[in-house]
Amino acid sequence: MRAYWAVIQDSFREALASRVLWVVLVLITVLLGLLAPLGYRQQITRGLSENSVRDMPHFIAHVRDEARKPESSPSQRIVALLDEPLRGDVLAFAIPGDGEMAGAFKMLRVMGNFREALNRLLERRDFYDPQAWRATRLVSDEARERAKKQVAAMSEAEVGRWNRLVLEAAYPEFIPASPPTSLRFRYLWYDFGEPLPIGQVQFERLLETIVERATRWLVGTVGVFVAILVTAAIIPQMFDPGSLALLLSKPVRRSLLFLAKFLGGCMFILLSAAYLVLGLWLILAVRFDTWDARILLCIPIYVFMFAIYYTVSALAGVLWRNAIVSVVVSILFWLVCFLVGTSKSGVEQLVLNKMRITELVVAKDTLLSVNEMGLTNRWDAEQGTWVEAFREDNEEGMQRRVALAMIPHVPAELRPLNLIYDSRGDRLITATRSLRSGQMVLAVGPRDKDWAAAAGVRAPLGTMALLPEADGRILAVSTFGLYRLAGEPLGGGSSVEIFGFSLPLPAHDPFAAVGPEPPLGMFRPAAAAVNRDTDELAAYSRGTITLLSRGADDRFQRRVEKKLDGPSAGAVVLAYGGDTLLVGREDGRIVAYEAKTLAPRREFSVEGKNQPRFVTAAPGGRWFAVVFHHGALWIYDREANEMVRPRIAGQRDVSCCLFTANDQLLVADRATRLTQYELPAWQVSRRCVPPRSLIETVYRYVLLPLYTVFPKPGELDKTVQFVLSGKQTKELDRDGDLTAAQQELHPWRPVWSSLAFMAVLLTMGCLYLERQDF
Q: How far apart are CA 34 and CA 38, in angstroms?
């Protein structure tokens, strides 16, 4: 062993003697020195950043319309405080149409000036006028607490915060709720950038993302490439006449000599990665108070990434004994891996993932599904396939479909709300955001018109969910309260005949407010669920769960409230059935509560930090199903007070499920396959398997086998993400919605495939050396 250790030491000395290594270490030192003074400080959240307002053009248009009305309002107050030129621009503001370049430039100018002016107004003590805000309800606890204090007695920072809170209360659809404090980066004693209105937990996630991306680029890309250039000559130099004779004179085996040289070559990236990652970890610990030892696990991961490429370089060095050839072969190997991985991920992101079923609806004898793009299909038993239904055949619907097909990830703004079957009218109803007005508009598709979707009336302002009540009526959960659909959703008003002419009468608002008082204040992250057994409603917003019951006047009123534990008001998913409320939290915990008192019955952490995506309850509340973002399905048994993971086909590839009866569960897996199980035996009673398309066939029988065989060094950054976050999925949207799609990482798949690839190539190198005469 001493001889092999000597070879490793020689390789280590060769790495230390490399000028490139010392240049890299000096550059890393400079980088760490520049990053060391970076820090942050907390401050009261006030003012508006560029991303504080959702849809700024429609926000200005809303302020314009409200300011023109005779009633006193916050919009009138804002416009009155603006200077004369900007006031005229706001009152004359118009969103340009397609191709109006001059109008587009004017809109951008007005948007920038309006935001700057509004930030100046938010610092004024006379911004808030009780008369203008008399109809605005302060729903947040912080706002109600600050309202007890006179503006004259507030500090300058408190005035800015108070004005921000009343602005959020007046325009919750456009300005989301902000945390009391924001974080701002600083360098030495100087603040830079805009404050980040995020909490400590979100800030730690941001730091994890920054560290992961920095190390991936500096070590995983630049570092590996430089290391390949430096170490490419180590194996070929072993065959130099003088070196080879000296090495073979020692009592060593040729194969072990090759492996010792290989290990010695890995020293370069080990030194670089250890120095950089350890330095970043110390900066995070000292300057940001984030003592997370998991960051140090990035070192062996990136050394392993280099070892994959170096295996190819080493084998090329053995075969051709030329350093330049080794570098070229390594680059070609990277290119092939990149093409295979990109082809596979492209097909998944643009086609297969969008086909995955995320919602199931049973309309009497018709089974319908909604995929990741928000498109609806019905199951045709005769053809044995999914057939598109509930399609909106108009210009805006076509534009939406084109946009959904072209982008790799579907944003929440383009997806419709949950699909509802209106049993009273035998029709499907949902709500989509209009691309023109930005408002939520109902889409209605009756059965007698083959479920063809037609545009209906506007949903209540701030609508975030549609829920079916036990008696079949439809409830709209809005930022401002609860509304029940009591009229015609298509908005067809009645008409009157005068002198033989039919004159249409204006349609009434079909939604009726049904409480509660004061309003819930459903600010994101928010969620809601109806108990079809008791007709109660469970609502969650800003860390508080509220159970509401219907009174004699058919309006909802608060019954019990509970503040969830934890440092932040994270996102949740809810299911309410029988005497149980099941809550899935963003830290991976599943908590069962007694519906009567909201006392916690039991808590589960069945999938670690992996987040739940959907939770659904069976009629009667005996069973609850939890679908996690990484495809795992768990069942909560109310009677046994246990969670079990059923052994079913497609486990770890489940996308959603639905209880069709007390003991029947429909499970969607493998993108478009449905299986109906009979509980508790989990016997299959029905299966819907559509035929594979051409692109699915090519993916399964060509791309997937190639991807499985090839190593995946470029995907080891997903392993780093898993190490830092503890989750097997990565959030694509940070809008406080757990039901939004996440990217599955498969953190250990690149490790095992790459280990097998390395073992094969190193074995080939060893066998070649053993059989050669030198």
A: 8
Instruction: Report residue 342 as tokens.
Output: 């990109």
Q: Cα–Cα distance between 230 and 131 in angstroms, integer? A: 73
| pLDDT score of 502 | 43
| The pLDDT of residue 15 is above 70 | no
What global pTM score does this model have? 0.83
Cα(746)–Cα(138) distance, rounded to whole angstroms? 45
Q: Mapped to the 3 state alphabet, what secondary structure does 682-702 carry?
A: CEEEEEECCCCCHHHHHHHHH
Neighbour count for residue 772 (Cβ, 10 Å): 10
Q: If DSSP codes are grouped into helix, strand and coil, which group holds residue 445?
A: strand
19 burial (CB, 10 Å; 0-12 / 13-18 / 19+) is: exposed
Residue 286: the pLDDT is 87
**pLDDT of 200 strictly over 50:** yes
Strands 673-678 and 664-669: antiparallel
Q: Which of 227, 234, 232, 241 is nearest to 324 (CA)?
A: 232
Given a cut of 70, whether residue 734 has pLDDT beyond it is no
Assess contact for 631 and 653: CB atoms under 8 A. Answer: yes
Amino acid 499: pLDDT: 44
Sort residue 173 into left (φ over 0), alpha (ψ -120 to 50) or beta: alpha
CB 716 within 8 A of CB 302: yes
Question: Left, alpha or beta for 619 (phi > 0: left; psi -120 to 50: alpha)?
Answer: beta
pLDDT digits (tens, 9 = 90+) for 482-533: 999 988 888 754 444 444 444 444 445 789 999 888 777 787 788 999 999 9
pLDDT digits (tens, 9 = 90+) for 141-172: 788 888 888 888 899 999 999 999 999 888 88
Distance CA 733, CA 625 (A): 24
- The pair phi, psi for residue 335, each rounded to 5°, is -65, -45
Looking at residue 505, what is its pLDDT?
A: 40
Report the mean per-residue pLDDT for the chain: 86
CA distance 554 to 565: 32
Written as one letter, the residue type at 606 is: V
Do residues 629 and 610 make contact, with C-beta atoms less than 8 angstroms apart?
A: yes
* Residue ranges with strand state E in 248-314: none
Q: Evaluate whether 134 touches 72 at the Cβ level (below 8 Å).
A: yes
Residue 178 CB-density burial (10 A; 0-12 exposed, 13-18 middle, 19+ buried): buried
* Dist. CA 326–CA 310, nearest whole Å: 9
**Residue 246: both structure tokens together:** 């000296």
